[in-house]
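Bumping my old thread because nobody answered last time. Still need a sequence for this structure:
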């Protein structure tokens, strides 16, 4: 007989679980999420929130931190010429650097699709990203060196310039003591007295280094008199080791080959000649009674190139170094977006008669607009805090001209005349300038995620 309370068949009923409240389950999930987020939130507070709060607090005090000055540090930002220059240069960076790097990245990404060695090309363009800002700054400090024998930029520039306007070989040449030559207008030299046919003219100069003499120069020769013609010698009136007579062609002295000689009468050039390898020259009879002139072109200083790191060009030069580094980053992101562009649209446009430029401008660029905005915003945020390139490339004498906000923050906050209060105010200003760009980026990302 079955026990009391046991249903027929001898089976004990299984108790049903008590259902949990949806509210308690949701609260448990929130606790688990908070436990996982807690370490990140602690780090965020210690590394981001606390420094921002302290910088804001410190910006309201003087350099010692003992005296409350309110907004005085922010007023000084607007009145200090150095900081205003930094603001202007930062604005120039924000306009030029991201747009240039993005445009080059777009061009490189499109071109890389059209060549067989596109992968190698992308690798080559992206390679500068593997170099630190410090190393890139050192590289470009050498690239922009003013000496053409060291600086690549000036070596190329001088080479191109000298192809079309050859520099003189005698930039330091000048008359010696008791010379028959005297200075003339514009850097030229003229004879003190008119020359006569049949009487050799002597045009001695000094100041030309032996190693700087033109190739093919020979020992100076004494010009022989020729009836009805004006002859003479232009030479380096200097004997190594001393000795030799002044204004006399000595056996070991060198002619100044290629020197231009003009015969001038009443302010007009009546004849001209070029000195031979031994410095001798011959002028026609029309030069008789004229004064000989060595024109200023003979003594033009050698072209030394462009002062890339001077006050005028230092900021564009540093921006060029930045673009060299970050154009590869822009190219990789744009190339990824370009790979997702439907090829059918491009082919349909070509079939309808659109040229390559029209396809690029009306189809490729509009379809890549979201990617281009991502790249542009990322680079804008990046250049807002640019520091190392400017600090390394710009020489100390022009750092005020190349100054940017991040560099000014460093210079103000550290050093012998450090002012942490003003430095904190600059940091807060930099944050205020970056936050709107970040908000635009966050808003764009949310809009993309909601699609």
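Sorry it took so long. Here it is:
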């Amino acid at each position: 007989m079955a026990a009391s309370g046991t249903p027929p068949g001898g089976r004990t009923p299984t108790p049903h679980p008590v259902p949990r409240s949806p509210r308690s389950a949701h609260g448990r999930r929130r606790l688990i999420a908070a436990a996982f987020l807690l370490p990140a939130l602690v780090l965020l507070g210690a590394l981001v929130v606390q420094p921002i709060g302290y910088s804001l607090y410190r910006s309201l005090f003087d350099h010692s931190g003992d005296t409350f000055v309110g907004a005085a540090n922010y007023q000084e930002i607007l009145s200090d010429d150095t900081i205003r220059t930094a603001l202007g240069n930062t604005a120039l960076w924000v306009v030029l650097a991201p747009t240039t790097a993005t445009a080059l990245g777009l061009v490189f990404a499109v071109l890389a699709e059209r060549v067989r060695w596109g992968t190698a090309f992308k690798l080559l363009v992206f390679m500068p990203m593997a170099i630190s800002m410090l190393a890139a700054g050192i590289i470009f400090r050498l690239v922009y060196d003013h000496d053409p024998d060291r600086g690549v930029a000036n070596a190329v520039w001088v080479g191109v310039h000298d192809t079309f306007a050859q520099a003189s070989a005698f930039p330091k040449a000048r008359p010696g003591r008791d010379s028959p030559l005297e200075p003339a207008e514009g850097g030229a030299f003229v004879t003190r007295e008119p020359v006569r046919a049949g009487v050799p003219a002597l045009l001695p100069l000094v100041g030309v280094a032996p190693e700087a003499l033109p190739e093919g120069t020979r020992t100076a020769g004494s010009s022989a008199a020729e009836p009805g013609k004006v002859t003479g010698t232009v030479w380096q009136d200097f004997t190594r080791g001393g000795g030799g007579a002044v204004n006399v062609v000595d056996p070991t002295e060198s002619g100044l080959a290629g020197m231009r000689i003009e015969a001038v009468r009443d302010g007009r050039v009546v004849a001209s000649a070029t000195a031979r390898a031994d410095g001798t020259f011959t002028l026609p009879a029309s030069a008789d009674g004229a004064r000989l002139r060595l024109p200023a072109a003979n003594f033009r200083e050698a072209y030394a190139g462009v002062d890339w790191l001077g006050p005028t060009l230092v900021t564009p030069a540093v921006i060029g170094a930045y673009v060299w580094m970050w154009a590869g980053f822009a190219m990789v992101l744009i190339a990824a977006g370009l790979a997702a562009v439907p090829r059918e649209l491009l082919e349909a446009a070509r079939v309808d008669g659109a040229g390559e430029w029209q396809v690029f401008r009306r189809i490729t660029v509009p379809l890549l607009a979201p990617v281009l905005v991502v790249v542009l915003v990322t680079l804008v945020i990046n250049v807002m805090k640019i520091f190392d390139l400017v600090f390394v490339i710009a020489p100390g004498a022009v750092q005020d001209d190349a100054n940017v906000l991040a560099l000014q923050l460093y210079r103000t906050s550290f050093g012998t005349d450090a002012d942490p209060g003003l430095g904190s105010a600059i940091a807060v200003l930099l944050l205020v300038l970056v936050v709107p760009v970040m908000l635009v980026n966050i808003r764009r990302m949310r809009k993309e995620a909601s699609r």
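The mean pLDDT is 87. Let me know if any region looks off to you.
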